[in-house]
From TrEMBL:
Keywords: Membrane, Repeat, Transmembrane, Transmembrane helix, Transport. Residues 215-299, 308-392 form the RCK C-terminal domain. It comes from Halogeometricum luteum. This is SLC13 family permease. It is a multi-pass membrane protein. It is found in: Membrane.
Length: 602
């Protein structure tokens, strides 16, 4: 037990600090559990059992099915209809955002739903003269609330169902089994309605307007001091050199965004462009570097763009957009220098937003994390490639992206079948979801070569890695010891109070580590505690599941929060200010709802 507790402590530290990517941390734990088999009681077969777990396979299939839905453009279509309905009325915009996102997240994995809707909501906000900050956090929160409606709404629900089934098989006295498709929908509906009412009344007042309603990314990122035009006078030593030769030294931290010659503008690629006298160079650099290069090369200051319209007068190319880095992107763990992002997409990065902090210079060697946002200037063809690439979320909609709209009926029918068959007890969810994947390929909703690109492999490895930790907790008796410890609170708390303690503990844990990891750690403990106090184990498992699915208090508690962190211009404290009251409110609503709908057993 001490060895398992030590591994849990290591896991908590690594998950919270992100010293290693969370999937790598999970695999490390899996390896340590197997290496330390004499103490952890995890054999190699049990150590790798996470890869064969129905939860892991089901999540894998659901990620592919979600991509199939994305390819048809149905969510984007719903988003546009939402925008048309909402117009410039802020209350309608918020109601439409929550009303579309929640129900859709109940049948399609909520993470890709948010990834799809970020650009839709951002554009809706700007067109309606509303700050995106007022809509993007509610978008993320609504997706989490919607994920509680069905078994397949989140990977957390699927994993919790699998753990409950395993515990029920090992300890029949717990009377636990896999969740039904709509087993907790009635509670999820109550949670969704209460959460939506909070967001529409209290939450919207607590949300700051971090991003201006008028869309101007130069002003939003305060780039005026970092964008400068300089003229190359006669006799300058730069004349005759290429841009790369003259200003390509990485130590200078200078990007040449544009070369203007006799009114004609040249954009990427500029590296091999030869500099002539009287050329105007548009630079991104700091004042100190600018003064040094002007003195050394005899350049003349010629002002600079103050707004986005100055940067691209008359709406000319290239375009300026925010690009969010999602989970699974090749950029995660890389730097701009090591990833060759600029060269791949002929793009300039003008600013870098990471965990609420905006970096405007010297960002080439910053390690990129999930949720980081790049302010990118690129020509339209490069932006189209960015939009079509699963490695990025471009926070702006482009009309030239094509969808397989003729496949919408097939996609809707397949998802309906995937949901209905387990609900009617015809097939287990793992079988119906895999059958849905095959059906999507047969009907042309997805192409065979898109299957592997559709899977967020870091999520799969995370699940496979943490599942053995839950097994170790159970087999070594560590879960029982922790459960008995919490159950001791029943001496001065009613059972519903103990249930509330588990909800709060899970919510706090999920705020600093992965929601899936918190479910793996807390469900065995909750089941043991319920057994100790003679309560209904299912009620305790459900409280943990709901608490892990609704991590509102920090941007790192849930992946969808990271997706809106940058485009919303939020600070870490914004999530605490808006999310903490909601988490507390839902802790009471959920626990009372569980007590109302299910017998607590005492």
């Amino acid at each position: 037990m001490l060895v398992v507790f030590a591994l849990i402590l290591l896991a908590l530290v690594l998950f919270a600090t992100e010293w290693l990517p969370i999937d790598v941390t999970a695999i490390l734990l899996m390896v340590l559990l197997m290496v330390l088999e004499p103490w952890t009681q995890i054999s190699p077969r049990e150590g790798i059992s996470g890869f064969a777990s129905p939860a892991t396979i089901t999540v894998l299939a659901m990620l592919i099915l979600s991509t199939g839905i994305n390819r048809t453009g149905i969510v984007q279509t719903l988003g546009r209809k939402m925008a048309a309905f909402a117009g410039t009325d802020r209350r309608k915009q918020l109601a439409a955002t929550i009303g579309i996102t929640g129900p859709v997240s109940g049948v399609v994995n909520n993470t890709p739903v948010v990834a799809i809707l970020v650009p839709v909501i951002t554009d809706l906000a700007h067109e309606g003269k509303t700050s995106p900050s007022k809509l993007l956090m509610p978008l993320s929160f609504a997706s989490m609330l919607g994920g509680t409606l069905t078994l397949i709404g989140t990977s957390t629900n699927i994993l919790a169902s699998d753990i409950a089934a395993r515990l029920g098989a090992e300890s029949p006295g717990l009377e636990l089994q896999a969740f039904g498709m709509f087993e907790f929908t009635k509670l999820g509906a109550v949670v969704f309605v209460v959460g939506a009412l909070y967001l529409g009344t209290v939450g919207v007042r607590l949300l700051p307007e971090r991003v201006p309603a008028e869309e101007d990314l130069v002003e939003e990122y305060e780039l005026q001091e970092f964008l400068t035009d300089v003229v190359v006078p006669d006799g300058s030593p730069l004349i005759g050199q290429t841009v790369a030769e003259a200003l390509g030294d990485d130590d200078l931290d200078i990007d040449v965004l544009q070369l203007i010659r006799y009114g004609e503008r040249f954009d990427e690629p500029l590296a091999r462009k030869e500099i002539h006298e009287q050329d105007t160079l548009r630079l991104r650099t700091n004042r100190e570097t600018l003064e040094r290069i002007m003195d050394a090369e005899g350049l003349a200051f010629a002002g600079g763009p103050r707004t986005e319209s100055d940067l691209h007068p008359g709406g000319e190319e290239p375009v300026l957009v925010e690009v969010v880095v999602p989970s699974g992107s090749f950029l995660v763990g890389e730097t701009l220098a090591s990833s060759t992002f600029r060269q791949r997409y002929s793009a300039n990065v003008l600013a870098f937003r990471t965990r609420g902090e905006v970096v405007r210079d010297r960002f080439e060697d910053i390690k990129i994390r999930v949720g980081d946002t790049l302010l990118v200037q690129a020509p339209p063809d490069s932006l189209t490639r960015l939009v079509r690439n699963e490695d990025f979320i471009v926070a702006h909609e482009f009309d030239d992206v094509t969808y397989r709209t003729d496949k919408i009926p097939y996609a809707v029918g397949i998802i309906a079948g995937v949901v209905a068959l387990p609900a009617l007890n015809v097939l287990p969810i793992v079988v119906s979801s895999l059958a849905g994947v095959v059906a999507m390929v047969f009907t042309g909703v997805l192409k065979p070569n898109e299957l592997y690109k559709s899977v967020e492999w870091n999520v799969i490895f995370l699940l496979a890695g943490v599942i053995p930790l839950g097994i170790a907790l159970q087999q070594t008796g560590a879960a029982a010891v922790l459960g008995d410890g919490v159950a001791a609170t029943a001496e001065f708390l009613p059972v519903i109070g103990v249930l509330w303690v588990f909800y709060l503990a899970t919510g706090l844990l999920t705020s600093v580590i992965s929601n899936n990891a918190s479910v793996v750690l807390m469900i065995p403990v909750a089941a043991s505690a319920a057994q100790s106090v003679g309560a209904n184990a299912f009620a305790f498992v459900l409280a943990v599941t709901f608490a892990a699915s609704t991590a509102f208090m920090t941007p790192v508690g849930y992946q969808t929060n990271l997706f809106v962190y940058g485009p919303g211009g939020y600070r870490f404290s914004d999530f605490l200010r808006v999310g903490a009251p909601l988490q507390l409110l839902l802790s009471v609503v959920t626990v009372l709802g569980i007590a109302f709908f299910w017998d607590l057993g005492v």
